[in-house]
Amino acid sequence: MDTIIDTKLIDLQQTIYSSRNPTRRWLHTIRKEWIITKINQYGGGRDTMALEVGPGSGIYIPFLLGAVDRVMVSDCQTAYLNHIETQFKPGTIELRQDDITHSEIPAESMDMILFTEVIEHIKRTKDAFLGLYNLLKPGGTVIFTTPQKLSTLEICSKIAYLPGIIDVVNKIYGEAILNAGHINLMTEKEVKKQIVSVGFKIVEHHKSGLYIPFIAEFFGNTGLQWEQKLEKKIQNSILKILLWTQYYILKKPGKSTS
Length: 258
Fold this sequence. Notes:
- By secondary structure, this protein is of the alpha/beta class.
- Helix content is about 45%, strand content about 20%.
- It has 10 helices and 7 strands.
- A 7-stranded mixed β-sheet has the order 3-2-1-4-5-7-6, with helices on both faces.
- It starts with a helix and ends in a 7-residue tail after the last strand.
């Protein structure tokens, strides 16, 4: 049963960036574009290695391959790794079944780690951050994103995923809407507390992605323009808790040996 669910989620992750709904497409593409920019910015150097924890459909792997010398991909579920294996030539990347909360990957072996939209699926979040810290070389970088607990999208999703309502939502969007399985959403305060407690230094941080119910579903591109304008107005106010995604660049103190 888990394999069936995973396959559906993989298919979903491959289509959200071309969604018919302008708001849905925008919410995912702005995150994707930021991550690609940061991979290129923090990648590079001689004999460098990157790890992606929880690769999903594998959309970032080609960009990691272009930014570092070696790429490892890890996941605790084999369905995702099996999918990734079919997408790349043998020997291109290293696949590893591994749980980041008690990882068996060698300590201080990574120059860069991509950890995006994963922490919200993990119960022991502090253990996951500690796992990332232990795997990273001194001076290394973690590219990290996660949804905001109090964002309008996450709050509305709790209603949208209810039995019966999800069928209506699917019809409105005209495409698959699946429960993403977010079991441990955190506020900015909670995230920062755990990040700092394991030893990371936060060098970049911001939020983006305003979803307004009904406006997003029924006003198309015009509605998206309204959402984008309002997002700019609330970016530096208390209302920024309504924005969907938290973005972080984390550094492990110390001098890089690469």
